Amino acid sequence: MARPARPKISWAWLGVMPFFLFTFLFLLYPSSTIVIRSFRESGSGGFTFDNILALFKSPYILGSYWISIKISLITALGGAIFGFLLAYAAIRGGLPSFVRLSLLTFCGVASNFAGVPLAFAFIALLSPAGLLISWMKLFGFNPYFHGFTLYTFWGLSLVYMYFQFPLMVLIIAPAIDGLRREWLEASQNLGASTSQYWRHVAFPILLPSLMGTTILLFGNAFGAFATAQALTGGQINLVTIVIGSELRGDVLGNPGIGYALALGMVVIMALAIAGYTVLQRRTERWLR
Amino acid sequence: MKIRGKVWAWFLIILGVLYFFLPLLATFLFSLKAKLGVLSFQAYVNVFNDPKFIKGFSGSLLWATLTIVVGILLFVPTAYWVRLKVPKARSAIEFITLIPFVVPPIVFVFGLVRTYSRPPLLIVDSPALLVAAYTIISMPYMYRAIDIGLRSIDVRTLTEAAQSLGAGWGTILFRIIIPNIRVAILNGAFLSFAIVLGEFILARYLVKPAFAPYMLDLGQNRAFEPAALAVISFALTWACMGIISLVGRGKGQAPVGGGH
């Protein structure tokens, strides 16, 4: 009589408790530490917005966000465009079918080949003594005399592209597969030109998927750390690099700002992933 | 019209192939130049004779193995139990498994170090923390692989059949469920393996021997050996992805991820 309707939920939930406990200890609690301490005064421990506001007052920190955002935007757009063209060429370009299969396999490898070894690979290719640069020198052209360097912004962007466009190919390939040939035939029967087909049929259908994947690529580059660290030795002030040096030696002078800096990254990543998820759901309506 | 499209398609593919292979070719050629004037595998010999390489590489192998074991022991029972008994927990758990995508590794390790380096939670030096962190980082892939595997078998019927024959939960999990989703588990395991092997940030900031930090340190004062390591690293990534596509035979998720 005393306890109605309670026991139904109780015991079965115990089975998933190890998972919740583990993820609480090693993911949720450490992450929430960042959030909480971003709003806590370092000395007194009281609630404050000062740490967040300090982010916007420091040109150094604003600059680091700006470089991170810029490199992520550029490599996301570049990776998306090149990746899409490549995937479309392999799938709908009338090429032999082995091309498609090998492209997807290569992309699976390349999107996982990043960090320190990737930086070394590009140093072997494009450093002043690198293979491609020595080939170019044979033809009397040294890009290093014309403003190119591997170790600054554009060099790093070129390296990021190596893991950006394969990810685009992997994610956009199913969407291109989903473009039915009947749609092209139907539009041709109705007298549409190729550009009209693209403008009014294919592009609008692919748009959510293209945008969503571009946002995902943005996040992919935004969180990257090891590649930039290995390539430039921490010379480029990406947000991730600043967090890395803060972790080694409190370079910001105030631990609270370090937390706020990390929180800012999480907020931007969360927006990116949320955008991707929403747009990907939209795509799935068409591509069954 | 058709011909022109085809030319464009080939042009793009060749451009992609060049972009993909030139850095690898350059690295490989460079790694052969350790001896002046001749091509040799001297850099590889040097690397394999370096005790620090053995330490870093075996460290990474150990972390990867432990990560896979912990992942299987934690995620298989959880995903199984969710399907069988508590479908209500599903959305919460799926949400948690995706959080590592939102928290970049550098922010993640920042949180871990700051949380666990003061008493009473002083465990930042423990290797267990590194394995736990790797388990978290590989969770989106491992959990999803396992969950997809479970979707393809009839969990309820298998469980009831086993129970009616007198099997306990341990027998059901280890002798029925796990063998039935072994392809999915292998998939997740090799992806986790590739991720841990290439991972730099966690090992560096939790100060444990591993492959990628060793590679970066070697790059500070050597020229040819780091190139040899990059080639080895690429071969290992390739092997992992090859095994995944072999066991999965083309289906399953696109293997996406890793420590950039």
Summarize the structure.
The complex is a heterodimer of chains A (288) and B (260). By secondary structure, chain A is an all-alpha fold. Chain A has 13 helices and no strands.
What distinguishing features does this structure have?
heterodimer, A: 288 residues, mainly alpha, 13 helices, B: 260 residues, MetI-like fold, 12 helices
How is this fold's topology laid out?
The complex is a heterodimer of chains A (288) and B (260).
Chain A: H1 7-14, H2 17-38, H3 50-57, H4 59-92, H5 97-110, H6 116-126, H7 131-138, H8 153-178, H9 181-189, H10 194-222, H11 226-232, H12 239-249, H13 255-284
Chain B: H1 2-31, H2 42-48, H3 51-84, H4 90-102, H5 105-116, H6 127-151, H7 155-164, H8 169-180, H9 182-198, H10 201-205, H11 211-221, H12 224-248
Helix pairs in contact in B: 1-12, 2-12, 3-6, 3-9, 3-11, 4-6, 6-9, 7-8, 9-12, 11-12
- CATH hierarchy: architecture of chain A: Orthogonal Bundle
What is the number of helices of chain B? Answer: 12
- Main sheet record of chain B: none
Number of domains of chain B: 1
CATH fold label of chain A:
MetI-like fold
Tell me the domain tally of chain A.
Answer: 1
Which CATH top level class of chain A fits? Answer: Mainly Alpha
Question: What is Rg of chain A?
Answer: 24 Å
> Radius of gyration of chain B, Cα only, in angstroms?
22 Å
> Structural class from helices and strands of chain B?
mainly alpha
Elements of chain A, N to C (H/E)? HHHHHHHHHHHHH
Average pLDDT metric of chain A: 88
- Total beta-strand segments of chain B: 0
Largest sheet of chain A: none
Low-confidence stretches of chain B: 250-255
The CATH superfamily name of chain B is: MetI-like
- Which descriptor suits the 3D outline of chain B? globular
